[in-house]
Amino acid sequence: AVLNEQNKDEMLLRRCALVLCALGRRELAASLSSTTPPPKTTLRSFCAVAKSCTAAAFALATTTQHPVFAATKAEQLSSAKIEGGGASTLQSGRVIAITRGVNLDNTNWEKKVLKGVAFQQSVLRNCNFRFSNLFSASFFDADLTGSDFTGADMRQVNLEMADLSKADLTDADLTQAYMAGAVIKNLEKIDNSDWTDVDMRKDQRSYLCSIAKGTNPKTDVDTRDSLMCPD
């Protein structure tokens, strides 16, 4: 089994929390009378604070915005950890990578195999998903503003409540995708995309029909036909 770097970081930070607790016990014991044992409530409070600080540090380590980790985190997140699988994936024998509710702005996933990966409620603005395999992936309530899905396999993708403002879906195959509640107000690039059997509202379909054109290069399906646009 592959031990990913994020797990190593978490183990290290947890050890730091234990060290902080031990140091806190020593400092508290030294500051009090030798005949008075350190109050249990005080020790529990110190340990709770130490663990909270550690959790916060780990949370920062998993974001691309933190100044210390920004240079390497995007590369790590789009490498072996995700290639081996992702959060909520149903593929057995895969390494679990936590992607739910994470800030992944500006990350590069081009040509990655991300089948079944769950990006629910994650922030994925200006990301590169060009030609990636996203079959049955979930972007429920995710912010996909400005992300590029050119040529991506998005069949059966869950886009419920996702924000697709200014996203690029050129040449994407969205067959049987789920679009209920998706924000598409500023979605403008859908040339040659395939929307066959996509579940969406009537107003969403009308808007997409107003900008639809071209034929999908993989499925050879006309974009307007896939949306069932009126002639």
Structure notes:
The chain is mainly α and 231 residues long. 32% of the residues lie in helices and 0% in strands. The termini are far apart.
What is this structure, in a nutshell?
The protein is mostly helical and 231 residues long. It contains six helices and no strands.
Secondary structure blueprint with pairings:
Elements: H1 5-31, H2 40-61, H3 70-77, H4 80-83, H5 202-211, H6 223-226
- Strand percent estimate: under 5%
N-to-C terminal Cα separation, in Å?
A: 55 Å
Which structural category do the helix and sheet elements fall into?
mainly alpha
Please tell me how large the radius of gyration is.
Answer: 23 Å
What is the total tally of β strands? 0
Helical fraction: 25-40%
Low-pLDDT segments: 1-6, 56-96
Shape: globular
SSE topology string:
HHHHHH
Largest sheet composition: none
Overview features:
231 residues; disordered N terminus; mainly alpha
